[in-house]
Amino acid sequence: MELYENLVKCDIHIQVKQHIMLDIIVKIMILIETTLVLVDALSMGYHMVVKKLTYYSFSDVYQIMENILTSKHNHRKVLGFPSVGKTISINEGGAKISG
């Protein structure tokens, strides 16, 4: 009887460890998915971040991964870099100074 109780305790211990590992794996998966959706939303503009992060379907995640792999995202927007060449015009005085 004592041997059986020890085996049951070991089984429960193993099950608890398995549940903890599954919980860790699920949380890592959620972090990766959310990061991918955030990158996709930022590449479209800041106005899309809240809408995209509030709800996204699992099929959207596959499409986002495909877009990232084929480089269909605007990396400058994702990283937050301004598009300086398009918005700031240099006049004659500035052109002489800059070379």
Please give a handful of descriptors for the protein shown.
99 residues, mainly alpha, 78% helix
Summarize the structure.
By secondary structure, this protein is an all-alpha fold. The chain has six helices and no strands.
- What is the CA–CA distance across the termini? 90 Å
List the total number of helices.
6
Estimated share of beta-strand residues: under 5%
* Class from secondary-structure proportions: mainly alpha
| Tally of structural domains | 1
Taken from the alpha-carbon principal axes, the silhouette is rod-shaped
Helix content: over 70%
Number of strands: 0
Residue runs with pLDDT of under 50 for 5 or more positions: none
Described by strand count, sense and barrel closure, the largest sheet is: none
For the CA atoms, what is the radius of gyration?
Answer: 25 Å
Helices and strands, in order, run as HHHHHH
In round numbers, the mean pLDDT is: 77
Describe the structure.
The chain is mainly alpha-helical. It has one domain. The protein is built from 6 helices and no strands. The longest helix has 43 residues, at 2-44. The protein starts with a helix and ends with a helix.
Compile the SSE list and pairings.
Blueprint: H1 2-44, H2 49-54, H3 58-69, H4 75-79, H5 84-87, H6 92-98
